[in-house]
Design goal:
Helix 4 (77-89) runs antiparallel to helix 5 (93-106). This protein has helices at 2-28, 38-56, 60-73, 77-89, 93-106, 115-125, 226-248; strands spanning 130-137, 144-147, 150-152, 160-163, 166-174, 177-186, 196-199. With 267 residues, the protein is of the alpha+beta class. The strands form two sheets. It has a four-stranded antiparallel beta sheet, with no helix packed on it. It has a three-stranded mixed beta sheet with strand order 4-1-7, with no helix packed on it. The chain is built from seven helices and seven strands; from the N terminus they run ααααααβββββββα. Among the domains are: 38-128, Serine Threonine Protein Phosphatase 5, Tetratricopeptide repeat (Alpha Horseshoe); 130-199, Immunoglobulin-like (Sandwich), CATH 2.60.40.
Length: 267
């Protein structure tokens, strides 16, 4: 009986020590490096309040700057909601719509109560976004397409691209040199029937890479040798036969004082 008692006592002491060590390790664990510091959180709160104050006075560009800084410092859903409203009020309809969509996806807790208002604001903004198609001829592989200094993927060409109302500039750079530019203007909700076209000069043929010439061959290229292409042909035919055979055999938030989405007044 004494041995059993001692065994239970040892087990209890072991569990107690384990729990104490676990709590100590948790207390000493490093903070999340992605989380804002106390100073950043304080500054974000101050910027949030500055944004609300600017919005009350109709100073939407100031509100946009303050909300943008606050959200970058501490990305809270209610800050994002206010940022969306400021973006819309300053004509950044595309960005505002995306901010509303992100808020609707990410809002939780107390912020989720504002989802219906955000959905209503988004439905009002989307028809105001303009659409335009860009068509660029002679675009080379490494050419950089920019719209208002923001780089675009080649995948947007020929599709209806959402843009904010106002004046825009599309340009193309080839090896850091501007080779084409076109300006256009759109109104709210406009869908341009004719695309914005940009004609580029033809790109020069790519030269052979360094070392592409035969050493001591009088400057003639190895790619001009008929023996090379004969060997390549045999390898390709053999690979094709191999492939054919293989195929045949296979079978609570500290931020408060929100502005209504896209509205001029503050609740």
């Amino acid at each position: 009986m004494r041995r059993v008692f001692l065994a239970f006592a040892a087990l209890a002491l072991s569990l107690a020590l384990s729990g104490a060590l676990t709590q100590r390790a948790a207390a000493q664990a490093p903070a999340d490096p992605a989380a804002p510091t106390a100073a950043e959180t304080t500054l974000a709160r101050e910027q949030f309040r500055a944004g609300v104050s600017a919005a009350r006075s109709g100073r939407w560009w100031e509100a946009l700057t303050a909300f943008s800084r606050a959200y970058e410092l501490a990305p809270r859903p209610l800050t994002l909601l206010n940022l969306a409203g400021a973006q819309v009020e300053t004509g950044q309809l595309v960005e505002g719509a995306e901010s509303y969509r992100r808020f609707i996806r990410e809002a939780d807790g107390h912020a989720a109560e504002q989802i219906p208002a955000a959905q209503e604001a988004l439905a009002a903004v989307e028809p105001r976004i303009a659409r335009v198609r860009l068509e660029i001829t002679n675009l080379a592989r490494r050419d950089v397409v920019q719209l208002d200094e923001a780089s675009l993927s080649e995948a947007v060409l020929g599709a209806e691209l959402p843009v904010n109302p106002g004046e825009h500039v599309v340009l193309v750079r080839r090896q850091s040199e501007e080779i084409g530019r076109e300006s256009f203007q759109v109104e709210e909700g406009e869908r341009r029937t004719s695309p914005v076209r940009l004609q580029l000069p033809l790109a020069p043929l790519e030269q052979l890479p360094p070392g592409g010439e035969e050493a001591g061959g009088g400057g003639s290229s190895i790619f001009a040798s008929p023996w090379l292409w004969l060997i390549v042909g045999v390898v390709v035919i053999g690979a094709g036969v191999g492939v054919a055979v293989a195929l045949s055999s296979a079978g609570q938030d500290p931020f408060s004082g929100n502005i209504p989405p896209g509205a001029w007044s503050v609740r």
